[in-house]
Amino acid sequence: MGRLKTPLLLQRGYPKSDRLGRIKKLDLSNLQLQTKDLDLKLLNRMKQLKELDLSDNLLEKVPEGLDLPCLQVLKCSNNQLEDVTPLQQFTALEEVDFEDNLYLTVNDNYKISSLLPNIRKINGKETASLMNHVKILNRELTSRVTAYWEKNYKDQPGSRAQARDIHKEFVKSAVKDVRYGPESLSDFTQWKVKMIAQQLVASKLTRKGASSEEVSPSEEVSPSEEVSPSEEVSREDDLSPETPGTPRTLATPAGASNPEYMLKLSAFKWKKRLPSDPPPCKRARPSPPPDSQPVSQSSSPGSGQSALAESPQGEMHTGGQESMELRPMHFLQCHSKGNSPEDFSTQLWACAFEPTWNDSPGLPGGPSQTVATCGGEAVCIIDCQTGLVLHRYKVPGEEFFTVAWTCLTLVTQDGRKKRSSVLAAAGRRGVVSLIHVRAGFCYGDIRAHRKPIAMACFSPSQETHLFTASYNKRIILWDIGLPDCNYHFRPSQLLTLDTSATPLRLCPVPSCPDHYLLAGCEDGCFAWDIRMEESQKRRDFEMVFLFPQGPEQAHKRVDGLGFVSEDIVASKGCTPGSICLWSWSQSLARRGDKQHVTAIILAELQWSSTELSYLTLSTCPEKAFVFCGDEEGSVWMYNVSRYLEQQQPSKAKVAPTKILRWPDLSARGQKMHKTLINTAVADPTFTYLVALTDTNIIAIWKKL
């Protein structure tokens, strides 16, 4: 298509007119237009234009200098756009659609919300919650940039010319050093930090030349009033109106002496998938429901309802070793069926923190505050610091049981390589959904099994290798492949591992992740040889581990499994009321050629005496901790560092380092009873602890 001409604009404009200045709606979609084809002089004559459709073209950018003061709706999906900041020239813009532009990510949604105060919809989604999150991020980043200035640059003397050099250095170093929010939003936060820092130094230079009177940096950067995160969650009248049908958030105000928990709804919908028949419950829910008191009919899913903590929160009961405090941050309800505020029955099954990655493929690089949770029909991506749901992926009719992270090297259309986090989620339908979190959508499904998938995990050494454990008594190793620039990918099945009962937990052995896979199953703990150089692609287990409690205990359900170090395994299920710590290397050393291997127990950790199954343990190898929830809402925490180098077994049971008790909560005027903790997981640095319940509540604590 060549350069735009007046006849084409008149032909595609509405209402029909012989003057460009009278056109209010213009459709320029699917014309193979490039940026150079847009004639600014012609377009700028359309002063009454309210809606412009540029979708399905070849635009590399939206040109600067478009004077369209009345433009309210802009559609530019399926182009080659790389930057959304030129859209700030459309000050009246209310709706924008830029989906299917490969180089644009969720960060650009945040940029648009920050640049255009009147924006109501982005890519077809309401922006009320997104705008609220942007406000919180802006407030926190402004505070951090201000503090960074005060600490490092405030008192540096010099002339005006020297001040300019210092200010340039400040902007550069602030972008590098000031951090806040999840890794998936790093592009937005760095962009925002640069803007805040530039505004601050501009104000400093202006005031330095005009007056010696000092004005606080926070006043200079943030002239408009904004509500702090703590105010938003502690005062109902400060909450902005929210859209109906959004997941609720019960969040703790920072620094409150008597914490209040606020129910707040915010919607982040993913592209919907094909529905299937509603699944039965995975396990009958033993927790009692909230007291069946009448609920006010005036309460709506969009109204902020409070849940009050009726006793001190985060109470720690010491079992010995060390002093430790955890502060309750948020109590979230974001997996509700139909976004119902009355849903306290959806069971939440698994969560996993997004790793930060080194340059070397597959190697985690540090802490993360972004966690993925699954349960019911939804997978949620949550920022643990703010308690905000960043994304929500929903499959009607599905029940998600497991999530797992990896980091893939994706290739863009111009040949650039970029490392991006990918989340695998699976459950009742036996389908693995692959979600590119940064781009904000599910790019493909793998129909892995005919029966439900109990667990999935990635190989720590091969970024595209995914293990899936199914109720059809099989574990399959997949190569999910690398998606191309159009997200086309080709998965392949590498191995099939047969089990005698349902596999529940999977753990590649850290010291030899390409050699052995360890699994906890309904009938015991097994290991398989997974070396790819072996010709046989379908294999039986190579070893079964026996725990020394007598013949009748030789085979029993192992529903909790994890490595605390490269050698020490924590397992639960074989011994009632305890968690076993045992040595992989010592057990293998005494194996010989036998298939049955006696596990060398180093210690038994005292745990709840409940007979309920599927209360999954987790480990934090970096801090040598083991976590496990119980039937009363408590999280048992064990620091096992002293046992990692131990050669001889401990004779007495090891008491928990701490027991974190479930707080007394009420929601919507109803008493929240103690609940069952299905799993509790900490990030690699044990900064945050996340617990999932069978009453549709996610609890987040922060270690002080």
How do the strands and helices of this protein lay out in sequence?
Elements: H1 6-12, E1 13-14, E2 25-27, H2 40-43, E3 51-53, E4 73-75, E5 95-97, H3 106-115, E6 121-122, E7 125-126, H4 128-152, H5 160-177, H6 186-210, H7 217-221, H8 229-234, E8 248-251, E9 260-265, E10 305-308, E11 316-318, E12 326-333, E13 348-353, E14 356-357, E15 364-366, E16 370-375, E17 378-383, E18 388-394, E19 400-411, E20 417-427, E21 431-436, E22 441-447, E23 453-458, E24 465-470, E25 474-479, E26 492-498, E27 503-508, E28 516-521, E29 524-529, E30 538-539, E31 543-546, E32 560-563, E33 568-572, E34 578-583, H9 584-589, E35 596-598, E36 600-606, E37 617-620, E38 625-629, E39 635-639, E40 658-660, E41 665-667, E42 670-672, E43 677-682, E44 688-693, E45 698-703
Parallel strand pairs: 2-3, 3-4, 4-5, 5-6, 26-30, 31-35
Antiparallel strand pairs: 1-2, 6-7, 8-9, 8-12, 9-10, 11-40, 12-45, 13-16, 14-15, 16-17, 17-18, 19-20, 20-21, 21-22, 23-24, 24-25, 25-26, 27-28, 28-29, 29-31, 32-33, 33-34, 34-36, 37-38, 38-39, 39-40, 41-42, 43-44, 44-45
